[in-house]
Amino acid sequence: MTAGQLQELGLFEYTLKRSRRRKTVAIKVQQQSVTVYAPVGVAKQELEGWLLSKSDWITAQIQKQSQLLDTRQYPLKDNSILVFAQPMALLYGTNSRCEWRQVKNQPQPTLQLNLSGRVKHKQAMYQSLLEEFLHEQLESYIEMRVNEYCIKMAEALPSSIRIHIYKRRWGSCNRRRELTFNLLLASAPPTIIDYVIVHELAHLKYLNHSTAFWQRVSEFYPEYKQATKWLKEQGASLSWVVE
Ligand SMILES: [Zn+2]
């Protein structure tokens, strides 16, 4: 039997294992992954046509298995989070090591958080895995947008960008050109994150909230009033933190 190779087909991906001894094609769905066993001679096109005809059954099996995982009592505030304002389902599992991974083969974007059996403070560890994931998403978005806006605003890049959870601010900027952003922004719509970025970059020129400062903000983010209103009204809903 040849080593399986990951294949992609429409809604799901599968591992194909071919064998000389095998006479028929078979599918196995286990732990939400699909393996297809096939005789050496069957053409891939023929195989995929047959797989597509079975795709309702395959996706039903995958869903059933994810529900098995999902019915565990969820240790965080919710069993889904918002990532850039889009819902993402959370699954909690175990593995040989602690990790997060985005699960394919799901009807909606899904993040699986796995703990190794040795972890004592499970809730804290699930939470820190979730934060690690959100941190990575937000950091790469902010880095990209800061670069773009610095070019537009003819502003030199900040000296550093840090992301933490803050209770009372969305971002900050100091004399050393160090910017911070609130990790909770990872759940906000990208346009709102853009507003916070423009706001902090405008502070590189004006370290105050003067008329000149707001003029600079509005030049590069004209709808800044709607954005501040959104943060005031919706900001508190962004928290996934278990207190
Ligand atoms: Zn400010």
What does this molecule look like?
This is M48 family metallopeptidase. The protein is α/β, with parallel strands linked by helices and about 240 residues long. The protein has helices spanning about 45-55, 55-70, 120-150, 190-205, 210-220, 225-235, and strands at about 5-10, 10-20, 25-30, 35-40, 80-85, 85-95, 100-105, 110-115, 160-165, 170-175, 180. The protein has three domains: about 5-70, no CATH class; about 80-130, no CATH class; about 140-240, Zincin-like (2-Layer Sandwich), CATH 3.30.2010. Helix 4 packs across helix 5 (about 210-220). The longest helix has about 30 residues, at about 120-150. It is elongated and about 75 Å long. The chain starts with a strand and ends in a 9-residue tail after the last helix. Residues about 70-75 have low confidence and may be disordered. Zinc ion binds near residues 199, 203 and 209.
